[in-house]
Amino acid sequence: MNAGRVLVVSGLVALISGAGVTGEDGGEWINMFDGKTTAGWRNPYDFGKAEIVDGEVHLTSDKGKWFLCTEKQYADFILEGEVNVPEGNSGFMFRCHVEKNKVFGYQAEVDPSARKWSGGLYDEGRRKWFISPNKDAAKSKEDATKSVEEFRKRAGDSFKPGEWNKYRIECRGKSIKIYVNDTLCSDVEDDKDAQGYIGIQHHGEKGKVYRFRNIRIKVLKEAAPDVNPPGK
What we know:
Layout: E1 21-22, E2 28-31, E3 41-42, E4 49-53, E5 56-60, E6 66-70, E7 76-84, E8 90-99, E9 102-110, E10 121-124, E11 128-129, H1 141-155, E12 165-172, E13 175-180, E14 183-189, E15 197-202, E16 210-221
Antiparallel strand pairs: 1-2, 2-16, 3-6, 4-5, 5-16, 6-15, 7-12, 7-16, 8-9, 8-15, 9-10, 10-11, 12-13, 13-14
């Protein structure tokens, strides 16, 4: 497990159908939702609901935190998507691992609270905050304070609470970048995971709707065959 330095990229992940559109890096953008169904995605939890409303993906929960995940794995890619959440916390999982009632791995943070950690890199279910925005990931209180200040200086007010926010996540080898509304928030090198699934999160608040739209992906390097595909 190698930790690295830090910066930010924004993003979202996606999968599935739709006509391809050539992008600036060559290749094609692929829409991960067809605008009508959640085909190509799966809910590995015993709770939670995903539905398409006016072309948006709406996530709700009747029990707790959960993630809607792709059925396909991705290695190197550029992921873009928009998110609009209530006061609860959310995120875009990428190169993540999926088990029954459990999703863990890299996450691009969506945080509408006053602490302003949107665009940070969080290792869900493992190492927690990778860029040390809190004391748990720092060697000392002084290091933690400095880390928070440096991150907030990069991210600034890029995230707009209560509005649609565009994320862009770039994964090339061990390079991970996360952008929020075109602001580079995280720029990290880490080789913990070279491929995995993509997911979007509901934090678990009953009655709250987490909304996502315009999720698309550009594959830069195909993932190796999945040795443990869904259903096995």
